[in-house]
């Protein structure tokens, strides 16, 4: 169980970190707000906790607002929500980040954050003077108490309702001085004012209730779903209906009618507890509440439904957003549109908003229901079996992406449903094709047609190169799909049996050298290699496309038995960067690519780079690495790290999660898109183009008031600039070198202190910026010390 001393420690540490941390870069966040866990009514606004943050739906206008970490949310995956007497939101984080946050809804800013290292928050209830939060920590359930004191809520203690191990606490409610906790063992009741509820013996159980699914409060009444029955509790328990089997939530409307929601339908009950009518839902229902106008609001996995309890009709509302928060492959088109592909399909971000092509095993082959109105959800449905996506590329106005493992299944109509290489026309998504083991030359892993595909690459001749990780035939591990729809396999006949490219992970083609490079995974044969192959695509005497290839293999880590290469990029001539489980390695080849020398240093050694980690390079030859467990890292072309060797994480940036799956660049606008397990970030790259002068140099804020938790920013620097800060009389106060963590691309940061750590006084100072080539610039800055 969580101890009070550790709670106070975690809370104080988090508060200090959250409000003193300066976040590097200019960020945006794109999350899916479709999966609604719970909602509350605040005046004319529906406020919903979703897996992408907070969703605001204004009923009179039908408009949405979406809040995420850019707006001050400490976590965007919110599982529980309540509102206190001040109109502030109480938010609880979903697993595995069970934080508690008090949020100012009017000002869109955080008030307090309580991080007790919890696994999950399941329920919150708030009165005028006290709040209770049900939590899971590892395998232990408990309740946190917060009290209103000195015009703020503060943590007080932990309550433990049961001596037996609880499987869940699904709800908490306050009636007078009594606290009710709904659990799998029943409803526990304790007087929190007169008794110390840290001890289970000070709680009692309401008789006759087990397996409590939901407890919802309306005034003094508690409605309870337990053991397939619906109960009402005021001062005593009363059975309302024994027709509550499979129900997930229950509510009483303003006219006294009982409604209960199952996964896919709503029941209306008559005064005798019988089901009077039933309405089917097109989306899975998670929670239901009664609104002030007498109607019901359904929180579903695909948005909100306002259900008219009189005529039993529903109006559906969903915001324009990506259909999912998890995309594992990204690419940016020449026109700036972002394409994200993942387990749930493809999402495309344009100036209009998000368009979704959703994968389904239930819909017809292609179901179109899009409109030109991007104020709400825009999505089409296509039928195929999906799994994790490894790569996505564009070729001749078509999108191609690979499914990393798809086992074929058969639909009710007898058709085979599976993945492979997916392709669709950007302007006509109904033109959707699946290249699988039946209708292409892709070699399956087994006789059932199981496909496991990884890297894609489009070369200068528009050939699509495919690394077929799971191919049963070694001579079909690398396949080329030509623009005229011919299939070419790259043979491995000149490789020894112990040196085959058994498990290709990533592939790239060096356009000017007639070379392709392949990374390989050592998991299955303990012999992962890096392959560099010279090739020529030609036609044989029959006019068929064929390929001549000369294979060469190399170790990616000479001192290690694990030579797995997850991903690769080629920067300058004869140089390759390979991402391995041990870190980033640089290999330099001779002119014929028959031998390679390794740079002695392994970059980012010790970071967890596992399967799915990738590397990409931007147009300045900076290398971006994503770890599927440990964040985002950038190695600049000058071999320094940005912002430093610790990389980007949620605690030092607006990165949504340490689980990062892909990075892609909009080179025209200087933006990096980053796919994580909690959504997509964009980051404006502060070194996207080479700066040739200091003509745009400026400092802000001006005047700079100190002490401050945020540094002054000196923007508009040339590459590899250093700075010196002087008094007007010429006395040197501070030196900021280009190699320090206080310089990031076009920007440098100053905290108002001298080299010795002392704050400067109020006055005007000189900032001199200079770079290695001799260019320099001096500007004035104003400081006010308060």
> By helix and strand content, what is the structural category?
mainly beta
Number of continuous helical runs: 1
User: How widely separated are the two ends?
Assistant: 45 Å
CATH C-level label of the domain at 329-478 and 562-684: Mainly Beta
Read across the widest sheet, the strand sequence of neighbours is: 30-31-32-33-35-34
Largest sheet: 6 strands, mixed
Mean pLDDT: 89
Give me the count of strands. 69
User: Architecture of the domain at 329-478 and 562-684 in CATH?
Assistant: 7 Propeller
Instruction: Please identify which CATH superfamily of the domain at 329-478 and 562-684 we are dealing with.
Output: YVTN repeat-like/Quinoprotein amine dehydrogenase
The CATH topology of the domain at 329-478 and 562-684 is given as: Methylamine Dehydrogenase, Chain H
Q: What are the low-pLDDT stretches, counting only 5+ consecutive residues below 50? A: 1-22
Proportion of helical residues = under 10%
Fraction in beta strands: over 45%
Q: Which overall shape is indicated by the principal axes computed on the Cα atoms?
A: globular
Q: What is the CA-based Rg, rounded?
A: 30 Å
Provide tags for this entry.
mainly beta, Methylamine Dehydrogenase, Chain H, six-stranded mixed beta sheet, globular
Describe it:
The protein is an all-beta fold and 786 residues long. Among the domains are: 214-319, Methylamine Dehydrogenase, Chain H (7 Propeller), CATH 2.130.10; 329-478 and 562-684, YVTN repeat-like/Quinoprotein amine dehydrogenase (Methylamine Dehydrogenase, Chain H); 698-785, Macroglobulin (MG2) domain (Immunoglobulin-like, Sandwich). Helices cover 2% and strands 48% of the residues. It has one helix and 69 strands. The strands form 17 sheets. The protein has a six-stranded mixed beta sheet, with no helix packed on it. It is globular. The model is unreliable at 1-22 (pLDDT under 50).
